[in-house]
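User: Assemble these into one structure.

Assistant: Restating your components, then the assembled model:
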Amino acid sequence: MGLYLLKRLGGLLATLVAASIVIFLALEVLPGDAAEMQLGQNATPAQVLALRTELRLNRPAVERYLVWIGGMARGDFGQSYSYEVPVSGLIEQRLQVTIPLAFLAMALTILLALPAGIFAADHHGRPSDVAVSGLTQLGLAIPNFWLAILLVLLFAVALHLFPSGGFPGWNHGLWPGLRALLLPAVSLAAVQAAILTRITRSAVLEVLGEDFVRTARAKGLSRPATLWRHVLRNALISVVTIMGLQFAYLVAGTIVIENVFYLPGLGRLVFQAIANRDLVVVKNAVLLLAAMVMVINFIVDLLYAVIDPRLRISRP
Amino acid sequence: MALLEVEDLRVTLPTARGPAAALRGVSFSLEAGEALGLVGESGSGKSLTALALLGLLPEGAAVGGHIRFAGRDLLALPERELCRLRGNRIAMIFQEPMTALNPLQTIGRQIAEPLRLHRALSRSAAADEAIRLLGRVGLKPAAGRARAYPHQLSGGQRQRAMIAMALACAPDLLVADEPTTALDVTVARQSLDLMAALAAESGMALLLISHDLGIIAETTRRMLVMYGGQVVESGPTAAVFAALAHPYTRGLFAARPRLDGMPGRLPTIPGSVPDLADLPPGCPFAGRCALAIAACTAAEPPAVDIGPGHQARCIRLDQQPPAGDPVAGGPA
């Protein structure tokens, strides 16, 4: 177990370094000059030169990379030129929207998908299974932004139960914040729950066909007891894999929904920063997103080992 | 009264090509403490017979006939009652020890499970009993093996664990479906001897399913030969080995690899098992039988008495050449 953990941790760090290099190089080869962008068309060459020196744009790339990484290690993410505030504060603010939204959407996804998938597998081939499968098809077919708009029309415009967009912040209490995130979370969860239901159903079905399930029944366990004690944990391995991918998507890929609901999340920050050529924000935010995805994958790897003793290396 | 009486057992399975008559009137009985062998090639209905005894037939299977176990008709019992019998009075050992154990649970926990279920033992009492059972099947150190996961054991060790699990509640009947097929020869012999010894020791009846005739000869007193969902020959193991009445039994014996200078290629039975979804009339073996005549496909052959307790379903028994020396020495 210790060795397994160490290996995964080493892999995590190596990937993180590789990601930072890729992000740095990608922004490096991007056409345009950050100093010229900031100063606009009317800047004199002397002003551009001065800013280039201030931004160290005339220094070698390796030095600038090391300065960037070194700064991050000290918690200094640099200054955003378009917002004119420290990037760290900016990102921290946006994470207060993105992270709770991702958790809320993931919780809804799991609450919907696991029971539905297990139920469908247990009723394999019967009308209730077909009904669940039909619903998941529908969930997959509906674009989430369209569902989001429908939800706004119904719950915000017609029923006035939820705000149609925006985010009040957490300092007004928990409920106003959750209220603002609930419709976006539902629109995100609909598709993810449809995917996870299908994965859960097929994973449970696959395990139900295994020999040890028959052994469990031959011991005298009832069908439901076999499902709980022997099938679900075995099915969880593939379900956790997909859940990890989904959570990573919910953290990093919710920009469309953030735009529909005017949520100041991380996705929108990156989008706007790219539009503004605010490269300091872009590279830090993108690296942070990459790091979060890697941490999620790391946690999924750990969960594998918790679930499956075959992945723990030590022997008793 | 016999411990187990199977009477005219019929099982029909739904397939893509329509219903398949997988078991067609299987009848046999088993006394308490007796060992009965069941041989036949894949698709003959051996495993299905075993699953029918436990009430674990695949979904959609239609069952007819009677299975009387200790006076109760299992086919009429509700699922709840069957759950009380399974693993408790009737236990089963499966073919593949590699996949028949849950990979995520320790051996000890899996052996303790039927004890917790049927004997209502506490967690710690069941764990202690599991360790005792592991010692009994020769898995040592028992306490260490109880903490191991299936992937940490070899195939033979896993099969021993399976045996311990099946014996946990001291059942009246042990059904072993090809328990040694997945093991190498010496390990197979060890687990088989162990199983037979423990069955004899505790007075358990044993239904041993195998295609290994040597194993059947050594372990059982009586045997059944199955083909096409029917028992085509049945009798005392020694008598069947000596007479080889049914042409199919004869073919099975001829197809046995031997070490005593058998010339040329191993004989095979030409053709393959009949399609159970579309059975021709008459004897199911007629299509592959060298002795088949028109009458064979006209009507299902009745069971003919050959010797004491020895029967075969064939109308051409008189055409058989004398048994000769198909198995040197016969049953050991």
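The mean pLDDT of chain A is 88.
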